[in-house]
Amino acid sequence: MSFLVTIGLEVHCQVKTNTKMFCACETSFADEPNTHTCPVCLGLPGALPVLNRHAIEKTLLAGLLLDCGSPEISKWDRKNYFYPDMPKNYQTTQMDLPLCIGGEVPVYDFNYPTDVKKDIPRPGLKIRLNRIHLEEDVAKSTHLGTSSIIDFNRAGTPLMEIVTEPDLQSSAEAFAFLRSLQMILQQGGISDADMEKGQLRCDVNISIRRRETDPYGNRIELKNLNSISAVRRAIDYEVERQWEELQAGIEQVQSTRRWDDDRGESQLLRTKEDAHDYRYFPCPDLLPIHTAPLLEKVRPLLSERPHERATRYENDYEITAYDASVLAADLPLATYFEAVAANGKVPGKKAANFLLNVLLGLLNERSIAISDAPVSGPKVGQLLTLVEGGQLALNQAKEVLLVLLENPDKDPGEVAQSMGFEPADASELEGFCDQAISANPKQVAEIQAGNEKLVNFLTGQVMKLSKGKANPKQVTEILQKKLL
Ligand SMILES: [Zn+2]
Asked: Ligand 1: distance of its center to the CA of 55 in Å?
């Protein structure tokens, strides 16, 4: 018996700004608790909010990056509830006129979990967005047994809420969606979106039903998941739990649950009956926003998105779609790749291969990020130009690279020379070739009978004779001239 899973996400993402949403306090992480506070973000009576223009502009920019529209006028509302981390008893947010509406997030295939990557059910998936609104983050409370402590440094940090349509169908899709969204927001300069720092948090709505024609099942909300892998685990658990109950004839009641990642289970928090009635009303302290002039201001800041960059690489450098997407996904890697390929003498395909298969491996072994690579992109470009020009074999280039990693100031050509990787003089090479030909009459006969692949065997023999110093490309050319 099968069933359908329907998932919608609400992603809370801290906007990268120097100061808070409605006051001039610095935004901070891991500073001494309660050192970045003022009457506004402490929620003291009578304190008046002042809008942070940067937070609004960045949210509008996020909307442009995600193909959202914006209403002409966007306004602020109060969402009323009592909670210790929100002492003024309301959160300033946006209800009916958010900054951004609609839009979509491309889910990049390479962002699926490894075990799903080989068989993605819906490749090239796009997830529709419902809206993005801006609000203030709450204070951070930590519960210690019977008491709680609270830190207001986080209170008032600008927080975007990105709400999807119920377009997702599995935990793997949610995983890939979040990684793709995170990537777009990070590269667009909107947010650092670091889940470990709580800059990206996620509520998940899940329901299941038996078949397409059935109405949606009652949805269960999982609150405040703070890692992408926890989102995946929580969804898998919840789908299993709901399916077992459905089979046992138990209807789901619309409710909110808490995910306990340590125990690997969800626990009921509250059902619809005791859900909050927030009594939203327009904020009397803040003026509505005309979005058009702000949109015009931020439009020039719109950067290339990972999928656009990948398409450009595919077209300009003629590399595979997969390599293009891997390079484009990581901004420092993309910048490095462009620097390697910049001189135009190295075909993109070869630059990409060398980067992905050789350089990244060596850097990984040394736990060095590409952004800290000791050898610059242009220098690797120079090295590959030597390979392209037939002066150096690819495996020799790897050895030169190893030396360059230790001595980044050295010149690739000089290093190659000092290692004895010089183009051998032609007469010496010819001599080695003649030697190899006369020593292997059987193979020569086969080559001349049409088995041209055997030339590689002779090339190998010549390489041995030259003690590995000859250039295999050059050797093969000489052998072909002599035999074919
Ligand atoms: Zn403040």
From this structure: 15
Domains of the chain and CATH, by start: 4-299 (no CATH), 304-418 (no CATH), 426-483 (1.10.10.410)
CA of 56 to the centre of ligand 1 (A): 17
Sign of CA dihedral 438, 443, 449, 455: negative
Written as six digits, the tokens of 127 are: 């997830």
DSSP secondary structure letters along 248-307: TTPPPPPEEEEEETTTTEEEEEEEGGG------EE-TTS--EEHHHHHHHHGGGPPPPHH
Ligand 1 centroid from CA 64, angstroms:
29
Q: Please check whether residue 160 is in contact with residue 134, taking contact to mean a CB–CB distance below 8 angstroms.
A: yes
Sign for the pseudo-dihedral over CA of 408, 409, 411, 414: negative
Q: Which residue has the tokens 């120097």?
A: 18
CA of 16 to the centre of ligand 1 (A): 16
Angle, vertex CA 418, rays to CA 417 and CA 424, nearest 5: 40
Distance 104 CA to ligand 1 centre (A): 33
Q: Report pLDDT digits (tens) over 381-416.
A: 999 998 888 788 888 899 999 999 999 999 998 888
> Residue 38 C-alpha to ligand 1 middle, in angstroms?
4
Report residue 229 as tokens. Answer: 């892998």
CA of 26 to the centre of ligand 1 (A): 8
Could you tell me the distance, in angstroms and rounded to a whole number, from the CA of residue 25 to the centre of ligand 1? 4
Kindly report, residue by residue over 312-325, the tens digit of the pLDDT. Answer: 999 999 999 989 99
Spatial contact of 185 and 193, defined as CB atoms under 8 Å apart: yes
d(CA 177, CA 63): 16
Instruction: Report how far ligand 1's centroid is from the alpha carbon of 40 (Å).
Output: 5
Is pLDDT at 435 greater than 80 in this prediction? yes
Task: Report the range of poorest mean pLDDT among 1-5, 57-61, 400-404.
Answer: 1-5
CA of 431 to the centre of ligand 1 (A): 81
End-to-end CA distance of the chain: 65
Burial letters 42-59, b for 16+ CB under 10 A, else e: bbeeeeebebbeebbbbb
pLDDT digits (tens, 9 = 90+) for 185-197: 999 999 999 988 8
In this structure, what DSSP letter does residue 449 have? Answer: T
Cα of 138 from ligand 1 centre, angstroms: 12
Return the pLDDT at 274. Answer: 62
What is the distance of C-alpha 444 from the center of its chain? 53
User: What is the dihedral angle through the alpha carbons of 41, 43, 46, 52, rounded to the nearest 10 degrees?
Assistant: 30
Location of structure tokens 């859900």: 275
Q: Is the pTM of this model over 0.90?
A: no
